[in-house]
Each structure stands twice: as structure tokens, then as C-alpha cells.
Specification:
Layout (H helix, E strand, L loop, with lengths): L1 H5 L11 H28 L1 H9 L1 H20 L3 H5 L2 E5 L7 H33 L6 H29 L8 H6 L1 E5 L9 H5 L5 H32 L15 H5 L22
Antiparallel strand pairs: 1-2
Helix pairs in contact: 2-3, 4-6, 6-7
Length: 279
């Protein structure tokens, strides 16, 4: 950060690097599956209490994401992931972040992902019904067939924006920010420092403590989620040497007929081999 601050002058505008904006986007995408894992774990431990959260997880996450993103958009002018990496949003024209920009940013960060997830799940359900020979209306068949192409076009547009942003052709790195006419810049406000003595004396706002706690929790969660992903990967792969060895099949008439002979070329074995799948 010191190197970045050394180049900040009133006449020079420092643009965040592509790696910083990509890291913020990746972190923002991680929230949904990460919290879902926590909800699934709670539902497994207490199905009577947390079972409904799994069923209505999209609605639960909509409320949670709306509260968190709404607070950070209003307080810092950016999403939680963007503020975590020291970034904030501003208009490409006025270099400000107006109330209209905040409202549209909230729609794109909270409401649009919810609608897209609902559409994807509905299309997957319609496609499954169609493959199971169930009646599906014509417009729904067209929709779930068209959805992969729309997703591919959007990913292609994102790639074009990444390359353009890296080449300094555009000031925005994503299609959504381009539509909103917003760009990312470094957060000018420094993090407020406070101690427990200031808390006891009432010098620190509750909102400040909550914001700091969320950011610290986010730092720990990033490592914890990576550890959980590694743990699950290792558990899924497992150790093949610990698998039970099946019993040998009973010999039939072909066993004696092709003893020590290759059943394909009917010649004696020169290099004995074994199938790697079954041994």
C-alpha cells in the first residue's frame, strides 16, 4: 500500500490493477457457496431448527446480502468485497457516488444475482422434466436452451472487458459497471483505529465496530474456506489402498481354456499386465 500511496497526487489518478479488481470479484462470488456450507452444516446438526434455511436459502441469502451490501454501499461506496481490497465506486462522469448510483449498485449486487440464480434453477428443473418425457411449454424449452448461450456471451463480454481494462482502453473491468457508468478507485478513507478503552468510554460507534469485526471475520474466513475445500477434496479422493479388496470371481470353462493365453491373440503371455481400474 505504501508504493500505491507514494504515487497518489492531486493530478494523477491511480487505477486499481486488474488483479485487485479480479480478487474483489472472486471474493464476492465466494460468499454465496461459503454461507451455504455453513447452513448445510447447521441443518445436518439441527434439522428441526435449521432445516427451513436450506429450503429457503436463496431468500435467506437475499436478506443477508441485502443488509451487508446495503450498509457498505451507503457507508463506503462499494461492495463488501471491494471495500475489503480498499476499493470504492465512483461515477465515470462526475467522479462522485450519488444516491442514484447507490440504488443501482444495490440492484446489481443483490437483486440481479438472486433473479439469475432463480432462473438457472428453474431452467435446470424444466430441462430435467423435458428429458424425463414430461410436458414442458414451448417458451420454457426455448429458454433453457438459450440460457447457456446467454451465459457464454456474458462470460465473453467479461473477458473482453478484462483485456480492455488491462490495456487501458476502458476504465471499467466488468459489463455491469459499464452499464452503470461506474468505475473502481482506491478508497481514500483510512481505517479507523480504536482500542477497547475507547469502546468502554463510548468513543467508538457501534457501526464502526461491526464493520471492523466483519472485515476481520472475512480475513479468517478466507483461509478457513480454502482449508475446507482442500479437506473435502482430500476426503473425496481418499486412499485407494484402503479400499476393500473384492473376492476373486469363480472360474468358468473359459478360465481353463485360456489359461496363460491371451484371449485376443491366442498367444502365450510375454509381458503379464493388469487392468489399472480393477487390478
Amino acid at each position: 500500500m505504501a508504493a500505491k500511496g507514494a504515487h497518489i497526487t492531486p493530478n494523477i489518478e491511480v487505477k486499481p490493477s486488474l488483479f485487485e479488481v479480479l480478487a474483489a470479484d472472486s471474493l464476492n462470488i465466494t460468499f454465496y457457496p461459503a454461507i451455504k456450507r455453513v447452513v448445510d452444516f447447521l441443518a445436518t446438526a439441527k434439522p428441526a431448527v435449521f432445516g427451513e434455511l436450506v429450503r429457503y436459502y436463496d431468500e435467506f441469502y437475499l436478506v443477508f446480502n441485502g443488509l451487508v451490501q446495503g450498509y457498505y454501499i451507503k457507508q463506503y461506496g462499494g461492495s463488501l468485497a471491494e471495500v475489503f481490497y480498499g476499493l470504492t465506486r465512483q461515477s465515470l462522469r462526475s467522479k462522485t457516488f450519488s444516491r442514484k448510483d447507490r440504488n443501482w449498485s444495490f440492484v446489481v449486487l443483490v437483486l440481479v444475482p438472486y433473479a439469475v440464480r432463480k432462473l438457472e434453477k428453474a431452467c435446470a428443473r424444466w430441462k430435467e422434466d423435458y428429458e424425463n418425457s414430461k410436458h414442458v411449454p414451448a417458451h420454457r424449452k426455448q429458454l433453457f436452451r438459450l440460457l447457456p448461450y446467454l451465459q457464454a456471451c456474458y462470460e465473453g463480454a467479461k473477458l473482453i472487458h478484462y483485456v480492455s481494462y488491462l490495456a487501458n482502453v476502458t476504465k471499467t473491468h466488468s459489463p455491469s459497471l459499464r452499464v452503470l457508468e461506474l468505475g473502481l478507485t482506491y478508497l481514500s478513507e483510512e481505517e479507523e483505529s480504536w482500542s477497547f478503552k475507547d469502546v468502554l468510554q463510548g468513543k467508538v460507534r457501534v457501526a464502526t465496530m461491526i464493520s471492523a469485526a466483519l472485515l476481520r471475520w472475512l480475513e479468517l474466513s478466507a483461509f478457513f474456506l480454502q482449508f475446507i475445500e482442500w479437506w473435502q477434496t482430500e476426503a473425496n479422493i481418499g486412499d485407494l489402498s484402503k479400499l476393500p479388496i473384492p473376492d476373486a470371481p469363480d472360474q468358468d470353462s473359459n478360465a481353463n481354456k485360456y489359461a496363460n493365453v491371451c484371449p485376443i491373440c491366442l498367444q502365450k503371455h510375454i509381458i503379464p499386465t493388469a487392468v489399472s481400474v480393477s487390478g
